Amino acid sequence: MYDIKKAFGIIADKVADALSSQGFKREKVSSTDKEMVALFTGENVAYSVIYYTEKLHVVLRSCTMTDEGPDNEWKSMATWMFNPETDTNKEAESIGNDFADAVNAASAVKRVQKTKKKKSSDEGNADPLFLAKRFVTYFPELKAEIKNEQDNYESFRGVYFIRTYVVPRVNELLSRGVKGEMSKLAQMISTQYSNGDMDTRSIITIVLLNSIDEKHIEKFEPLLSEELQKAWKFALKMKGKKVRPEKPKKSLATYAADRLR
């Protein structure tokens, strides 16, 4: 069996390294037999990494900082499974890198800079690119496709990318019918809907969920958050109707050529 304390240390240290340049401080917190915890606090935001020993889940969460400390209204940003019976240093490194990418993402940095103490908003800061990166946990091949998108276009084509690269893979995952996979995916999508900006929320409902094969809806919908279930029911009214298309994004080659004119 792999030493879970060592694995947790690898993951937490990678998050600590990613946050140190943003001015975050690692706090001393106690762990229990059921939960291993690492806490990082900044001026406006707090992050925590928690490993649930019974569920075998390791979670990256965030909440707002107040004058008294974290407000403890935690929102999950990413969830991975780590089973010390089968997983090793390789999986711990992968989880740590994913969590580090999450806190280093432009949307996460933007949130650190703009979140106000004791103030909340109905709209989050997670953008479509951040959403796309969350799917890499489930479909690792997306990492190369995201990089190709970023390398070739001046801005990320969220609608196109999700419809072209994510939707088919989601339907394939749902076709397998593995409850654990579906539950984990539903939790992630629900979290991203809650934390997402308006573009992200629209992509999740109108593009992603409305493109799920009808045969999967009955088993997948109950796994989503209540908030997202309600939003999806409203979005279904838009299914099949023409909506304003995403504004075309210039490729970097075209953008460079325009700059030279």
Short structural summary:
The chain has 261 residues and is α+β, with helices and mostly antiparallel strands. Helices cover 51% and strands 14% of the residues. The protein has helices at 4-20, 89-104, 106-114, 128-134, 142-152, 158-176, 179-195, 198-208, 214-220, 226-235, 252-260, and strands at residues 25-27, 35-41, 45-52, 57-66, 69-70, 75-81.
Q: Could you spell the SSE succession in H and E letters?
A: HEEEEEEHHHHHHHHHH
Distance between the termini: 63 Å
Mean pLDDT: 84
**Secondary structure tally: strands:** 6
- Described by the principal axes of the CA atoms, the overall outline is globular
Low-confidence stretches: 116-122, 252-261
Count of separate DSSP helical elements: 11
The percentage of residues in β strands lies in 5-15%
Radius of gyration: 19 Å
Outline the biggest β-sheet. Answer: 6 strands, antiparallel
What share of residues is helical?
A: 40-55%
Which structural class fits the helix and strand makeup? alpha+beta
Structure write-up:
By secondary structure, this protein is α+β, with helices and mostly antiparallel strands. Helices cover 51% and strands 14% of the residues. The chain has eleven helices and six strands. It has helices at residues 4-20, 89-104, 106-114, 128-134, 142-152, 158-176, 179-195, 198-208, 214-220, 226-235, 252-260, and strands at 25-27, 35-41, 45-52, 57-66, 69-70, 75-81. Strands 1, 2, 3, 4, 5 and 6 form a six-stranded antiparallel β-sheet that branches. Strand 1 (25-27) and strand 2 (35-41) form a beta hairpin. The longest helix has 19 residues, at 158-176. The protein is globular and about 55 Å long. Mean pLDDT is 84; it is low at 116-122 and 252-261.
